[in-house]
């Protein structure tokens, strides 16, 4: 085999896991947890006492960080739960295309063109209005478990 037969697509996470294990009893409110294979922000945790059959149980209520749905899970407190690696990155907004994709400027000067406008009506309106007014906008992109979505907006003044 010659050297030029192997082409590997390089990804930013370099094969890193999308989640890491954490003991259920140590996960707190405002932390993150994976419930039903969705990354969630924990909004409520309650722990039941150890019963006749062993473990104390943690009852988690989480809000999906991408679609806002409420999910619940009950896990023995001594067991491990998956916790998503959640990253927030700020990008400057350059353009909004007709089909709902945004063009963002990365730190190294390249453009990122694979993100759609957010589905949240309030945020969507703020982005579109600010952009049409010619403001310099910075969007925060939340990334977890291979998904990315615009989650916040900062106005850094007029262009």
From TrEMBL:
<dbReference type="Pfam" id="PF21485">
    <property type="entry name" value="IF5A-like_N"/>
</dbReference>
<dbReference type="InterPro" id="IPR014722">
    <property type="entry name" value="Rib_uL2_dom2"/>
</dbReference>
<comment type="similarity">
    <text>Belongs to the eIF-5A family.</text>
</comment>
<protein>
    <recommendedName>
        <fullName>Eukaryotic translation initiation factor 5A</fullName>
    </recommendedName>
</protein>
<dbReference type="GO" id="GO:0003746">
    <property type="term" value="F:translation elongation factor activity"/>
</dbReference>
<feature type="domain" description="Translation initiation factor 5A C-terminal">
    <location>
        <begin position="85"/>
        <end position="154"/>
    </location>
</feature>
<dbReference type="InterPro" id="IPR001884">
    <property type="entry name" value="IF5A-like"/>
</dbReference>
<keyword id="KW-0648">Protein biosynthesis</keyword>
<dbReference type="Pfam" id="PF01287">
    <property type="entry name" value="eIF-5a"/>
</dbReference>
<dbReference type="GO" id="GO:0045905">
    <property type="term" value="P:positive regulation of translational termination"/>
</dbReference>
<keyword id="KW-0385">Hypusine</keyword>
<dbReference type="GO" id="GO:0003723">
    <property type="term" value="F:RNA binding"/>
</dbReference>
<dbReference type="InterPro" id="IPR012340">
    <property type="entry name" value="NA-bd_OB-fold"/>
</dbReference>
<comment type="function">
    <text>Translation factor that promotes translation elongation and termination, particularly upon ribosome stalling at specific amino acid sequence contexts. Binds between the exit (E) and peptidyl (P) site of the ribosome and promotes rescue of stalled ribosome: specifically required for efficient translation of polyproline-containing peptides as well as other motifs that stall the ribosome. Acts as ribosome quality control (RQC) cofactor by joining the RQC complex to facilitate peptidyl transfer during CAT tailing step.</text>
</comment>
<dbReference type="GO" id="GO:0003743">
    <property type="term" value="F:translation initiation factor activity"/>
</dbReference>
<feature type="region of interest" description="Disordered">
    <location>
        <begin position="1"/>
        <end position="21"/>
    </location>
</feature>
<dbReference type="InterPro" id="IPR008991">
    <property type="entry name" value="Translation_prot_SH3-like_sf"/>
</dbReference>
<dbReference type="InterPro" id="IPR048670">
    <property type="entry name" value="IF5A-like_N"/>
</dbReference>
<comment type="function">
    <text>Translation factor that promotes translation elongation and termination, particularly upon ribosome stalling at specific amino acid sequence contexts. Binds between the exit (E) and peptidyl (P) site of the ribosome and promotes rescue of stalled ribosome: specifically required for efficient translation of polyproline-containing peptides as well as other motifs that stall the ribosome. Acts as a ribosome quality control (RQC) cofactor by joining the RQC complex to facilitate peptidyl transfer during CAT tailing step.</text>
</comment>
<keyword id="KW-0396">Initiation factor</keyword>
<dbReference type="GO" id="GO:0043022">
    <property type="term" value="F:ribosome binding"/>
</dbReference>
<dbReference type="InterPro" id="IPR019769">
    <property type="entry name" value="Trans_elong_IF5A_hypusine_site"/>
</dbReference>
<dbReference type="InterPro" id="IPR020189">
    <property type="entry name" value="IF5A_C"/>
</dbReference>
<dbReference type="GO" id="GO:0045901">
    <property type="term" value="P:positive regulation of translational elongation"/>
</dbReference>
<feature type="compositionally biased region" description="Basic and acidic residues">
    <location>
        <begin position="1"/>
        <end position="12"/>
    </location>
</feature>
């Amino acid at each position: 085999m010659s050297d030029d037969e192997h082409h590997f697509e390089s990804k930013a996470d370099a094969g890193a896991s999308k989640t890491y294990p954490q003991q259920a009893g140590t996960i707190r409110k405002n932390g993150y947890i994976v419930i039903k294979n969705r990354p969630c922000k924990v909004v409520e945790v309650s722990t039941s006492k150890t019963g006749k059959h062993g473990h104390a149980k943690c009852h988690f209520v989480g809000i999906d960080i991408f679609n806002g749905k409420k999910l619940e899970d009950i896990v023995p407190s001594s067991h491990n739960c998956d916790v998503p690696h959640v990253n927030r990155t700020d990008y400057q907004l350059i353009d909004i295309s007709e089909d709902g994709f945004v063009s963002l400027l990365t730190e190294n000067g390249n453009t990122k063109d694979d993100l759609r406008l957010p589905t949240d009506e309030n945020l969507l309106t703020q982005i579109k209005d600010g952009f049409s007014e010619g403001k310099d906008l910075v969007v925060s992109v939340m990334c977890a478990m291979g998904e990315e979505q615009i989650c916040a907006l900062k106005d850094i003044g007029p262009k």
